[in-house]
C-alpha cells in the first residue's frame, strides 16, 4: 500500500492546496494531510481550526485523512508508516528549497521518497501569504479559497463583507 503525507501549515487552506490534495489522492492508496504546528509562524487560524477546515473539504475523499503533528516530518512518517511525501511546486524558486528538504529527508530515512506535483496553472501564483494579505485589506478571496471559508478568514481580520 502506498501511503503518502502532504505536509504544510495550510493557514489558510487555498484552492491550490485542495488541487494538490485531490490530485495526489488519486496517485496513492492513502493520503494523510499533515498539518504542521509551526510555532515559528504567527498563524491566522489555530491548529485545530486548520485541521477542521481541511476535514470539511476532504470528507468526501475516502482515502484522505487529516492529522496534525509536531517535530520532524520523517519522525512522524515513521509513526504513521508513510514512505512518500507530496509537495506542490509553483515556480523554480520553490524547487530549490524543496529539493534540499527532500534530499535531507531521504538522507535521514532512505525509505522516504518525495514526489513533486506542479501546481495547476490557475493556482501557480497562489499562496496562503497572498490570501492573508488580500484578506487584511478586505480584498476578494473568491478565486483563492473555498467559498465556505471566506467569511471565517474575514472574521479573523474583523472585516465585515
UniProtKB/TrEMBL annotation:
Xref: SUPFAM superfamilies: Nucleotidylyl transferase (SSF52374)
UniProt-annotated site: Transition state stabilizer, residues = 17
Q: List where this protein forms a coiled coil.
A: none
Looking at the record, the residues that make up the Cytidyltransferase-like domain are 5-133
GO cellular component terms, alphabetically, are: cytoplasm
Query: Which Enzyme Commission numbers does its entry carry?
Result: 2.7.7.3
Cofactor(s) listed = Mg(2+)
Pathway info: Cofactor biosynthesis; coenzyme A biosynthesis; CoA from (R)-pantothenate: step 4/5
Where is it mainly found? Answer: cytoplasm
**What molecular functions are annotated in GO for this chain?**
ATP binding; pantetheine-phosphate adenylyltransferase activity
- Any idea which positions bind ATP? 9-10, 17, 88-90, 98, 123-129
- The residues listed in the UniProt record as binding substrate, with positions renumbered to this chain, are 9, 41, 73, 87
Family stated for the protein in its record: Belongs to the bacterial CoaD family.
What is this protein for, i.e. what is its function? Answer: Reversibly transfers an adenylyl group from ATP to 4'-phosphopantetheine, yielding dephospho-CoA (dPCoA) and pyrophosphate.
Q: What is this protein called?
A: Phosphopantetheine adenylyltransferase
